[in-house]
Write a structure and sequence with these properties.
By secondary structure, the chain is mostly beta strands. Among the domains are: 132 residues, Jelly Rolls, CATH 2.60.120; 104 residues, Immunoglobulin-like; 90 residues, Immunoglobulin-like (Sandwich). It contains 1 helix and 54 strands. The strands form 12 sheets. Strands 1, 2, 3, 4, 5, 34, 35, 36, 37, 38 and 39 form an 11-stranded antiparallel β-sheet that branches. Strands 42, 43, 45, 46 and 47 form a 5-stranded antiparallel β-sheet that branches. A 4-stranded antiparallel β-sheet has the order 6-33-32-31, with no helix packed on it. It starts with 24 loop residues before the first strand and ends with a strand.
Length: 676
């Protein structure tokens, strides 16, 4: 998915304008692209490499397609003591066997009844026979060495999703259809139902320490501990809908692969668990029921798990065909990504190898313990924000004898590589050499790891590439001047200093250069600017204007990138004109005329620069009373007054009128009169 609307500096808008600004020069500070973690490397495309939990890149185990059954699906795998692999397939209900060191899958069993379409489960019994669970007939077949296959039992259900051999003979089976059941089947094929789940399918079984039987379902994500005499207890209720597979470690820990969405399409009509989860989870569950979400993946399909002798767990995912190795602490290594492979089932092979069976192709793959001879990691394209010239590429690595590391690069100006990009460069085999790809906005690297020994691999810990952008002018998006109403520097507004203007601006630099600012001012009509403040590193300034003559002024901000460049580039912007007014309004009371027991007052208010904001009068130090000008609105520097004061008694009065301009300057007029 493309990452649109990338920004060049946080909090800025219209930043794409930077690309088109001004003269171009060389910037000093290169932009460094460094990758040195599993998270970073996983953003790329691995092919024949492992991405370890320690954050290194190594060669992956080698893998190859060993055989093709010619069927559509491989649903089940089982290995006998002679290392022969048995393969349960669909859609024709056939079982194949693959002998050691063979590359040809031989047909072992072809279901005699036309109703059998899938071999969903396989197990090697204590008697050495192969048992096969089928669908949709719900039959279990027995294929004994040297004998004709026979029908072992009828389960009475539509699907047999899982079977495991009982240690002393017979089987356990997990079935599905209308109701998922857990069955015990003795040596003669007699079926006993141990438990019927509320879910439609029991999809996995596993036997733990002391013969404990565990079962999982696909609708409610339940894991049961089943009693051999009948009945079951819920060991764990997962958030996810399906527990796709179960396996038990040497210490009794149960590992469960859980998927947010069920992989089965058939249900029994009961309401399914609603899950707000995405992806899939590997759970580690103690026999007591204490569960831990050991590892998570964004892949929606976590299909199978195999326990290693050292206590780690190998898991296989479906979307990208990836095999991971998960440690007990929850860290994981991406062992291999199987290109163009759709795995479904995985089982351990001899000599620490792994068998993989595929859905959609019927193919069998084998992952060996030996390293692949060559592997590559292709990074995702990195955005240097602007067209850049490339520096050197360096990496930290370990290269045992007969191993090597090389790097190729390519560049372009589109986010997704296409035919407009440069070709891959010649391999760079020595760290610290220059990148030879042409200048561009985007850069991509490809790590190439090689070995001539199946027991040795190179290891890359980190890679670093540098790009030097063309320098461009900074940009000032706006300049704003406003009277400081908040109390400068956090002071109490009641005691804030008059005549303080806050000048602030928004500026940025496409090269991420540090900016330094110079402020100038002038009165409207003046040709020359006067220095107000220089060497500012903040984007605001409090201007104390007491010594500035009243009148209309404007402020210019000049931004410079000289801190990061030997040849500076600048940008400037000018504020809208605003009024400096530190003088109080003049209040004149022209006439006091008595009419009966009231007086009429006439007068005027005048300010040198700004409009009158409000006025009020007080008589003999009484409360202030608001007055309005003759036109009933204060909106100009000159206003006239004509107001009456009612219900006056005989005596002497002191009248005070105060007026305040738009910037808070207060002027006062005073007169004394007699009422007769």
């Amino acid at each position: 998915m493309k990452k649109k609307d990338r920004i060049l500096r946080a909090g800025m808008t219209h930043v794409l304008l930077f690309i088109f600004l001004g003269t171009i020069a060389n910037a000093v500070s290169p932009k460094i692209w460094r990758e040195d973690s599993q998270t970073a490397f996983l953003k790329g495309e691995p092919d024949g490499v492992s991405l370890t939990r320690e954050g290194t890149v190594t060669l992956a185990p080698s893998y190859k397609r060993v055989a093709n059954t010619g069927e559509d699906f491989v649903w089940a795998l089982s290995v006998d003591k002679d290392k022969t692999l048995y393969i349960g397939t669909g859609n024709k209900g056939r079982i194949y066997m693959l002998k050691p060191d063979s590359d040809r899958a031989e047909l072992l069993f072809d279901a005699p009844d036309s109703a059998t379409v899938h071999i969903f489960s396989l197990a090697i019994g204590a008697d050495g026979a192969i048992y096969a669970g089928t669908s949709p007939g719900g039959l279990i077949y027995r294929i004994a060495p040297g004998r004709e296959p026979t029908e072992f039992c009828q389960t009475g259900d539509r699907h047999v999703f899982a079977i495991v051999a009982r240690p002393n003979g017979g089987l356990y089976a997990g079935t599905g259809g209308d109701q998922g059941r857990i069955l015990k089947i003795d040596k003669q094929g007699k079926v006993t139902a141990l438990y019927a789940s509320k879910d439609p399918n029991v999809v996995s079984l596993a036997i733990g320490a002391q013969g404990a039987l565990y079962a999982s379902t696909d609708n409610s994500g339940l894991i049961y501990q089943v009693r051999d005499q009948g009945g079951a207890d819920v060991l764990y209720d997962a958030r996810e809908k399906e527990i796709h597979s179960l396996s038990v470690g040497p210490n009794g820990t149960i590992y469960a692969t859980a998927m947010a969405q069920s992989g089965r399409t058939e249900g029994n009509g009961r309401e399914q668990k609603r899950s707000d989860q995405s992806g899939a989870t590997l759970y580690a569950i103690r026999p007591s029921g204490l569960a831990m979400r050991l590892w998570n993946t964004d892949d929606p399909m976590l299909l199978d798990s195999v326990i290693d002798p050292d206590g780690t767990v190998k898991v296989v995912t479906g979307k990208h065909g990836r095999v991971y190795r998960v440690w007990p602490d929850g860290n994981a290594t991406l062992l291999a990504e199987l290109k163009d492979v759709n795995p479904w089932v995985m089982i351990a092979a001899h000599n620490n190898a792994m068998w993989i069976g595929c859905s959609g192709s019927g193919e069998i793959y084998r992952i060996e313990k030996e390293f692949a001879r060559e592997g590559q990691l292709t990074s995702e394209p990195y955005d240097f924000d602007r067209v850049s010239h490339w520096g050197r590429v360096s990496w930290q690595s370990e290269t045992p004898a007969e191993t090597s590391v090389a790097v190729q690069t390519r560049s372009g100006n589109s986010e997704e590589p296409d035919d407009t990009w440069s070709a891959w460069s010649e391999p760079i085999t020595t760290s610290g050499k220059p990148v030879t790809s042409r200048p561009g906005r985007f850069l991509q690297y490809r790590l190439i790891l090689k070995t001539q020994s199946e027991d040795a691999t190179p290891m890359v810990r980190s890679i670093k590439l540098a790009g030097l952008q063309d320098n461009v002018h900074p940009r000032i998006l706006r300049v704003r001047a406003e009277a400081d109403q908040s109390g400068n520097e956090g002071e109490n507004p009641e005691f804030m200093e008059k005549g303080v203007w806050k000048i602030d601006w928004t500026a940025g630099d496409a090269n991420d250069d540090a900016l330094i600012y110079t402020l100038y001012f002038r009165s409207i009509g003046e040709p020359n600017w006067r220095l107000l403040k220089d060497d500012l590193k903040t984007s605001h300034y409090f201007w104390h204007t007491e010594s500035v003559p009243d009148g209309t002024v404007e402020v210019k901000v000049v931004a410079s990138d000289r801190l990061d460049n030997p040849i500076e580039l600048t940008a400037e912007a000018v504020s809208a004109p605003f009024e400096i007014d530190n003088s109080a309004p003049t209040v004149q009371l022209h006439n006091i005329r008595q009419i009966d027991k009231k007086v009429r007052v006439t007068g005027s208010i005048q300010d040198a620069a700004t409009a009158i904001h409000k006025a009020a009068y007080s008589l003999n130090s009484d409360d202030w009373k608001v007055v309005f000008p003759t036109d009933q609105i204060f909106d100009s520097p000159i206003e006239t007054l004509n107001f009456s004061i009612q219900n006056l008694k005989t005596g002497s009065y002191t009248l005070v009128v105060k007026a305040e301009d738009a910037l808070g300057n207060v002027g006062v007029g005073k007169t004394v009169f007699e009422v007769k």
